[in-house]
Every structure is written in structure tokens, then in C-alpha cells.
Design a protein that fits this description.
By secondary structure, this protein is mainly α. It has a single domain, classed as Up-down Bundle (Growth Hormone, Chain: A), CATH 1.20.1250.20. The protein contains 15 helices and no strands. Helix 4 (about 70-85) runs antiparallel to helix 5 and helix 12 runs antiparallel to helix 15. The longest helix has about 35 residues, at about 1-35. The protein starts with a helix and ends in a 20-residue tail after the last helix.
């Protein structure tokens, strides 16, 4: 039962962090859009968030093997509190150049915090699950990932509501206070030796990856770029400007989308088991789902070109895109752990999520640049291209059949 207790603590910490992370994303986006920032300027506000996420994922796994996953998890929570406090000091009276630079610096801390927390949480699952228990591993990964995205969606909603009810600064202080409580609980409860490697890895081991880890990481880059090219800036600005939605409407819709996407991730093991004949997902699942994602994006473009209502096409298209993307992401999250042994898991997961952060960075920048220059349809074409690239890279993954999954997928059993 100790493994279940520690899994619960880690998941709870990740939930608390993710709620503030989603709310912060919406607060920054809507607040500075209200102040008149262009789509490109909005994209640049998140630039360091993604850049420092790349660096953190690369180095964070190495740090975790030396100091333990408990240290990196607590460090991520503490840095998010600092970032929230920094952002609360921003004033509309500041020059735009100063505001952009300051927010980028605060977002850099938030990016470091996010990826330290995510890397620590996901790596710890591999250590808490016994060797050979693929059913439990896939279930726990899917549950953590799915619940995280549901909470991130709730954070989008929370951000829109808090901005309307409390204003920008007060919302940030309220979230910081809640996160401090989570941090204190983790300091008092998590085991000090969690995630420390018995064999210390040399720094050059960060880049000494197996072929399947390298290929999966490259595919992950394009998979998340495909999402963020149209989702980060294009969709919320389109809903606000083209459809005339208010802050709460935009936040509520994006929250519902991410919550639904998280719910699909949580039940991914059941969906995959039915599709693969009871076996754990392998390369073929990642390949098919990536190409299906590209086809889904092209179908949205076709619907808009045919003259159907943009509201219906975009909302329905986002729903279908979210289902396919959610299952694909869950398959990827399982595969990176399946490709890693326990002593290298933090290094491999850190490297893998470095590629993830790189895809988000490129997607975020392209979302603002392409939307401002050419509109949402061009963002969608770029998204389809990235999804095709993810599928093409996945063709290079090993094609062996995965181990059988238990039918009950019991989380609580030891």
C-alpha cells in the first residue's frame, strides 16, 4: 500500500500545480489581450516558458538521478509560487517593452517549475510500479495524464472566472496561497530517497539514448507542435475576436475541451485494449493515431472551405481532434516508460519531455505568427503537416507486439 500512498501524494501535488498552471495560462492570455497585445506579442509572452522547459527537461532528469525526484518535485512547486508572485506585480502603467520582458522572465520560472513537476511525477510512476506490471503501469500513466489534463482544463475555466471576479493580481495571490499548502504537505509526506539512482549518471549520458527513445522523442516534438500551432493563440483569439466571445466564455470552452481531452486519456487503456486485442500499445498504435490526427485536421479545413458555420466546424473539429490527440498522447506516455529501465527512467523521461517542450515552443510561436499573418485556416494546415511528420517518424519505432494487458487494469493491487 506504500506505493499507492506515494502515487496518491505525487498525483495530488501534480493536480495542484496543474490547476494553477492552466489558470495562469488563461489569465496571462486574456489579461494581455485585453490590454491590446497582438497575437505575436501574446505568443512571445510564452516564449521563455517553453524555452526554459526544454532546458529543464534535459537537465532535470540528470539532477533527479543525483538528488532524487522528491527534490525536483518540491523545487517545481516552490518555483511556481515565486512566478505567481512576480506576475502579480505587473502594472498596466509599465511600458509595453518592460512588461513583455518582465512577463517573459516570470514565465521562464513557471516553465522550469512546470517541467520539473511533470518530469518528477511521471518518472516516479515507473519506480512505484513493480517490474512486469504493464497493466498497472499503463493504467497509472493514463490516470495521471488524463486527470492532469482535466485539471488543466478546470484551470482554464478558473483563470477566466478569477480574472472577471478578482482581477489579475488578486487571482495570482490566491493561487500562490493554495500552492503553498500543497508544497507543505509534500515536504512533510514524501519519502526523501524517492527517485535517487544507485548508479550516478555522467552528464554526457543525457544524450546517450536508445534508438526508440530518440525516435519517440522526435515524434513527440511534432505531435505537440501539431496541437499548439492552432490551439495556443489561434483558437482563443479567434473565439474572442471573430466570434465575439467574452473572457468567461473563452475560458469555459477551452476548459471543457481540455477536461474532455483528459477524460479520454484516463480511459485510454480500455480503448487501446479493445483495439489491440488485449495487448499494450506499441508502434502501430502511435503510427495510426498520428495519421488519423492529420486527417482530422484536414477535415476541419474542408468543413470551413465548404461554407459551413465556422462556430460549428471549429467546435466540433476541436472535439474530434481532442479525442484522437488524447489517445495518441497516452500511447506516447506509456511507450517512453516501457522503453526505459528503472535506473534510466528520469533521464529518458526528461529527454523525451525536452522534445515535448520543443514542440510546444515551436507550436506556440507559429500559432501567433501564422494566425496574425494568414489566419486560422493556415494554422490548421501547419498543424496537419506536423501531425504527418509525427506519423512518419513513428514508422521507425520497433514493431513488436506489446505484452498482454490485464482485463481489470487494477490500480490498487500490489
Amino acid at each position: 500500500m506504500t506505493s499507492v500512498r506515494n502515487y496518491t501524494l505525487v498525483t495530488g501535488a501534480y493536480w495542484g500545480f496543474t490547476l494553477t498552471d492552466g489558470a495562469l495560462r488563461m489569465l496571462v492570455l486574456l489579461h494581455f489581450h485585453q490590454l491590446g497585445y497582438t497575437p505575436i506579442e501574446l505568443a512571445f509572452l510564452f516564449l521563455f516558458y517553453e524555452v526554459f522547459g526544454i532546458v529543464t527537461n534535459l537537465v532535470g532528469g540528470w539532477i533527479a538521478t543525483h538528488m532524487g525526484l522528491r527534490v525536483t518535485l518540491l523545487g517545481g512547486l516552490a518555483l511556481q509560487v515565486v512566478a505567481l508572485g512576480m506576475l502579480s506585480l505587473v502594472s498596466p502603467s509599465w511600458a509595453k517593452e518592460l512588461s513583455v520582458a518582465y512577463v517573459m522572465a516570470a514565465q521562464a520560472l513557471s516553465g522550469i517549475a512546470k517541467d520539473l513537476t511533470k518530469m518528477s511525477s511521471k518518472s516516479s510512476i515507473k519506480l512505484l510500479v513493480p517490474e512486469g506490471a504493464e497493466s498497472k503501469l499503463f493504467k497509472w500513466v493514463a490516470l495521471l495524464t488524463g486527470s492532469k489534463n482535466a485539471l488543466k482544463g478546470a484551470g482554464f475555466f478558473l483563470g477566466g472566472v478569477l480574472l472577471s471576479a478578482l482581477g489579475f493580481a488578486a487571482s495570482l495571490w490566491a493561487m500562490a496561497a493554495g500552492l503553498v499548502i500543497v508544497l507543505v504537505v509534500c515536504v512533510l509526506s514524501l519519502p526523501s530517497e524517492m527517485g535517487k539512482s544507485k548508479r550516478k549518471k555522467a552528464f554526457d549520458g543525457l544524450f546517450a539514448k536508445s534508438r526508440e527513445v530518440n525516435v519517440l522523442s522526435a515524434a513527440r516534438f511534432f505531435l505537440f507542435g501539431a496541437r499548439d500551432i492552432w490551439f495556443v493563440v489561434g483558437v482563443p483569439v479567434f473565439l474572442s475576436v471573430q466570434l465575439g466571445w467574452g473572457f468567461t466564455q473563452v475560458g469555459s470552452f477551452l476548459a471543457a475541451w481540455v477536461i474532455g481531452y483528459g477524460a479520454i486519456q484516463s480511459v485510454a487503456p480500455t480503448l487501446i485494449r479493445a483495439w489491440t486485442g488485449g495487448h499494450a500499445p506499441q508502434a502501430r498504435s502511435a503510427q495510426v493515431l498520428a495519421f488519423l490526427l492529420a486527417a482530422t485536421t484536414v477535415s476541419i479545413i474542408a468543413g470551413l472551405a465548404a461554407g459551413y458555420s465556422p462556430t460549428i466546424v471549429i467546435l466540433a473539429g476541436l472535439g474530434l481532434f481532442g479525442v484522437v490527440f488524447a489517445v495518441n498522447s497516452s500511447v506516447h506516455s506509456y511507450l517512453i516508460l516501457a522503453f526505459s529501465d528503472g535506473d534510466k527512467v528520469a533521464l529518458n523521461v526528461g529527454f523525451y519531455y525536452m522534445a515535448n517542450a520543443g514542440g510546444r515552443l515551436v507550436g506556440t510561436l507559429l500559432s501567433g505568427i501564422i494566425y496574425q499573418a494568414a489566419g486560422l485556416v493556415t494554422c490548421l494546415w501547419a498543424s496537419a503537416g506536423f501531425a504527418l511528420a509525427a506519423g512518419g517518424l513513428s514508422l521507425a519505432l520497433p514493431g513488436k507486439e506489446g505484452p498482454a494487458l490485464a482485463s481489470d487494469m487494477d490500480v490498487a493491487s500490489d
